[in-house]
Amino acid sequence: MKATILAALLLATPVAAQENPLQNSATWDDLRESVLGLAADVPLDLTILDLDAPMRAHEAAIVPIRLTQPAGAPPVKAVTMVIDENPAPVAAEYTFGPAMAPLDFEFRVRVDSYSDVRAIADTGNGNRVMAGRFVKASGGCSAPAGKDMAAVQATMGQMRWRTAPQDGRQVGTLMIRHPNFSGLQRDQVTLLNIPAHFIDRLEVRQGEELLFAMQAGISISEDPVFRFVYRSDGQPIHVHAEDTDGNVWDQEFAAGG
Fold it and tell me: Domain Ig-like SoxY, which positions (predicted)?
């Protein structure tokens, strides 16, 4: 019986991974050229990059996204994240340092309606590949904030860091307290729209070496969490964050968390 169950699970795994492939809608045809300046479509190549996302999101405001590369793949230097049907489709632009290769990087986004979620990756010398999934979710950009305004003000900018070894590298998890208001939410007390207010710049370094940097829009989730695998050199972790209201936060963590 156990052998039968195990065999069924092994057979089901690759099928499940392809349950929600990209739909390549008319929206993408427009975005590709008008927003990203790409005259031709970008090829999909799972030997270089894959994107994992749920077919149907449990919470549209915190949809988990994971970018991964197989061993031996050319390093990804930058990724543009696009959520086709979001009010601001370009969710974030990431830059990655050498210590992040091969890439294993997770974060959470808001998805406003059924949409392709895609990563356009730059591997250098003008070479680009794409990965993505179609995600069934709605209302993520206007979903009510998880905390009241007093709690937001009291905790904004607080950070937590932890790390653990994995297969000769380290898995780092960074959490930043911030409401990341999208501008489409309503205050549940006053019923007035809450102005957009979100982290738009983030840098994470070990010592002087860049691990990753982010320039973001309204689609990164409230209280963003970043989980990533990297080669540690034992240097402290430095985090620099800025938001659209001009707030700046800097924090240093010991390499071991």
Answer: 49-141
Pairwise CA distance, residues 211 & 93, whole Å: 14
| Angle ∠(211,119,250) on CA atoms, nearest 5 | 30
Helices (H), ranges, 18-165 = 26-34, 149-155
Q: Give the single-character DSSP code of 110.
A: -
Q: 152-203 pLDDT, tens per residue? A: 889 999 999 999 999 999 999 999 999 999 999 988 778 889 999 999 999 9
Q: What is the C-alpha separation between 128 and 32, in angstroms, rounded?
A: 13
Residues 48, 123: contact at Cβ < 8 Å?
A: yes
**253 is written with which tokens?**
């963590």
Is the Cβ–Cβ distance between 204 and 174 less than 8 Å? yes
pLDDT tens, 83-101? 999 999 999 999 999 999 9
- Distances from the Cα of 14 to the Cα of 7, 9, 54, 119, 174, angstroms: 12, 10, 14, 20, 30
Residue 25 has pLDDT above 50, yes or no: yes
> 20-253 architecture in CATH?
Sandwich (2.60)
| Angstrom distance (rounded) from CA 65 to CA 69 | 14
8-state DSSP, 197: B
Token pair recorded at residue 119? 């990563």
Distance of alpha carbon 151 from alpha carbon 63, whole angstroms: 23
pLDDT of residue 18: 56
Secondary structure class of 142 (helix, strand, coil) = coil
| 83 closest CA partner among 116, 45, 46, 61 | 116
- The single-letter code of the amino acid at 2 is K
- The domain locations on the chain are 20-253
